[in-house]
Amino acid sequence: MNVFDAPGITAVGLLYEVHAALSARFAAQFEEHDLSPVEFEVLTRLARSPNNQLRMTDLAAQTTLSTSGVTRVVDRMERDGLLTRRACPSDRRSSFAVVTDAGLQRLNEVLPGHLRIIEEWFLGQLDPKSLDALLDALRRVRDAVHPCATAGSGSQCGEAEGPAA
């Protein structure tokens, strides 16, 4: 057997191809709303969290950005009025990134088009049983390769409570 025919090479290759194609469609749609893919991810992560907020360190862990990378993104989004920072009452060294009403409004403007892309190019390609199996498999792999992906949601990497992805 040729090494390039191995199921692992094929699976990872397909994952890359799907990610690249969906990311391109998403990026074009986000651009229509003056958001970058990273800004959309930050807004989504915060909107899905209790009180629409996460500690900056948890936000970094969830987005796989460095802490300085998250700081730069949050600075820019704060200047644009999409986020604000709030001091952590239990730790003066820590702060929360919090979605503003303007940030939630921007997210709500983007979501219908985003969901249409997901439905057409992802969910629409899978029956419910296949989707359940795919979600289970992706969560297992995600938890193995990126255990802090749900930081701030009661995982071992965060302290705050919140929903898992």
First-to-last CA distance: 38 Å
Stretches with pLDDT under 50, minimum 5 residues: 158-165
At the fold tier of CATH, the topology name is Arc Repressor Mutant, subunit A
Instruction: Indicate the percent of residues in helices.
Output: 55-70%
State the name of the first-level CATH class: Mainly Alpha
For the sheet with most strands, the description reads: 3 strands, antiparallel
Indicate the structural class. Answer: mainly alpha
CATH superfamily: Winged helix-like DNA-binding domain superfamily/Winged helix DNA-binding domain
Shape: globular
Q: What Rg is obtained from the alpha carbons, in whole angstroms?
A: 17 Å
Number of domains: 1
GO biological process, one term: response to stress
Protein name: DNA-binding transcriptional regulator, MarR family
Pfam family, one: MarR
InterPro entries: HTH_MarR-typ, MarR/SlyA-like, WH-like_DNA-bd_sf, WH_DNA-bd_sf
Task: Considering the chains and any ligands shown, give keywords for the structure.
MarR/SlyA-like, Arc Repressor Mutant, subunit A, 165 residues, DNA-binding transcriptional regulator, MarR family, 8% strand, three-stranded antiparallel β-sheet, DNA-binding, 6 helices, mainly alpha, globular
